[in-house]
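We keep the chain:
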Amino acid sequence: MNMMRFFKHPLFLSVLLLTVLYVVFAYVLNPPVPASLLIQYMVICTVAVLLVVTFDNKMAARFFAPLIALFGSPKMLLPRIAAFAAVVGGVGYLTYDMVKPSVTSPLELRTVHPAPPSSLRAYGKTYDLLKLQNPYREQFDETSEDYQAIVAEGADLYYKNCVYCHGDLLNGEGHFAKTFNPRPINFQDVGMIAQLQESFLFWRITKGGPGLPREGTPWASAMPVWEEMLQEDEVWKIISFLYDYTGFEPRSWELEEKSADAVEPAPVDPNAELTEEQIDAVYMKRCSQCHGVDGDGLGVAADRMYPKPRDFTLGLFKYKTTNSDSEFPTDDDLRNSILNGLTGTAMPAWKGLLSDAEVDGLIEKIKVLGYWDDVEPDELGPIEMGAMPAPTPEMLALGQKTFESICADCHGLKGRGNITSGKRLADDAGNRIWPRNLTHPESWRVTLDAQDVFQRLSVGIPSSPMPEHTTALDVETRWATANYVMTLRDNAVPVSKGESVIKAIRVDGDLPTDPADPLWDTAPAMTFNMGPNVIKEPRLFTTLTEFVTVRALYNDTDITMRVDVDDRTYSVPGSELERAYAIEGVEATRDAIAVQIPASLSGTNEKPYFRQGDKKNPVNMWVWTAPSVEPAADETAVIMDATGLDKAPKPREDSSALNAKGQWADGQWQVVFRRPLETGAAGDLQFSEGVYTPIAFAAWDGVNGEKGIRNSFTTWYWILLEPTENPTKIMGLAIAAALLAGFLFLIIAWRARKRFSQQ
């Protein structure tokens, strides 16, 4: 009975309610509530609870009775001491937590579907978005051949222009999607285009990220302004394709009633065996845009892809578990590639979208295209793997010796894919290809562990220069090499998952100028994905520049950053290495790396456009350029002021405030940038401790002929000059707050004790 009275007591119920509200505000709501707003919410809720429980004198007396007893009753001495310690300690801790330097990145909120304008100006015309309709949907019935021809044209346009970000599956997982924040839209999500009118899509496609209203900031959307690259009819064709492929209907404000004669389609068994006609339809819808109508790898998207889509007619498949004497893969090998995709390529994971019957049908279709549908499974011999040994130091030493003698010619001593043999590698179709960067497993295909690496060593990668090694290496040596290859990822910093802040560490004394200075090891390293410019003409669709790693240090006067970019080729025009690996038909340029920061901080969440800023929000670009042999030129470091992609960045006449030195070794550029924290120049950002500053990076691969806006880049991240803690100040405030809380507690206890004695 006493326990029930305790649970029903207004003080307990009030504390329970406030606790639940705190948990909801702090941990349940998504996106999370900022700390300052959380405090406001809790103050409001606490005041509201007190108003309720003190509504009348009787309720107030019951509510405060336990507190009066705690502070005043002689029998409550021990609980009173415990409460005193809890209050003093709690206030001291909370004060310390609030005044200590914070390294949490600023919270960014954006509207997913911002309100469109009532009218739109595009293609030299003004559109009323409230009345705008898809002309093809009005002109043709959706089941007609004419409309399906429009959808087919839209598919070709999508795979030539949109697949790189939104993906083959239209799920926002294109092979460059990981570069962007926010990520590209998932068209398969029922909360996306299924809830939108086609006029909304027309607005977003034609105007892109720069056309977003203010609530759509921060300016991070990578959506191109397609009005500049597509015609009006092409935009409508893509919109028609999006709805047809996903099976959604565009939202309409008009109420639609089903006809009384309408017949619901019969349910389809997803595992029922498909007819040849149905299999062909699946192939045409899901595969032909890349692999071609005839399976020859010449789909509409193939020209802009690296690596090229597989040519099924050759009957050659890179990733299989059958031995090198078996020409073909098993059904399970093909099924694995279809369901799980090939990381680092345009081949997506079809798991969840294709049924088992559709996958089985496509496997048979692939065999027919390659003229090997009559091969029996027992003709496909497995790899002799033996028992997988533990990676002992002795085994890793053997693996390193083998790797350096056999593999380093292509993959480089550090495994970054920098060819040292002088060979120009190509696949069986004559397409130029480059060795895998083994330090970044994010780009490995169908290879997750040492067992997979062993298979690649044993079988090779058919149709590529990667040979099989069963005749050159015994089983033990192949296992040793596979285990050593797994250690090469230690030569790189993994891509930062969910982290967006580069923490610049304060240094007492001189800052390092040499990339090899051990002082760099004290700075936390952050690695970000890079992607090529597929946003604005002239566009770049193939690049080998995938990652950038950054470290930062500062002292009383300067800030310095070491920016590392893996680059398989030493692109110094006229040098021996540049001539050896030049790409036919491509005019080599000089390698370059850039750091980009706003010219000033806005004080709001609005940032400059992440690609070289915009007219209202200019950016500073610190651009380092590699040297050249022919024509002779030294490396340069220039500060440029940029106001968007429509106008080339303007180099400053005086860039003496910036110093940058680069060094290339083992397939990687390491460039050290240095600039004073405060320059005094009106167009420069002035760095301060504890201030979050947007920062982005760009790189130009000279052997690929990259220049201007044809480069690779990141979206915005943050750099923070980690504030130096003042222990005396922080602890002093915490102790002062704790002492004040203790003093107030004692006064309340003294008055309550006096009142309790009188009662």
Remarks:
- Residues 501-724 form a domain with the Immunoglobulin-like fold (CATH 2.60.40.1190).
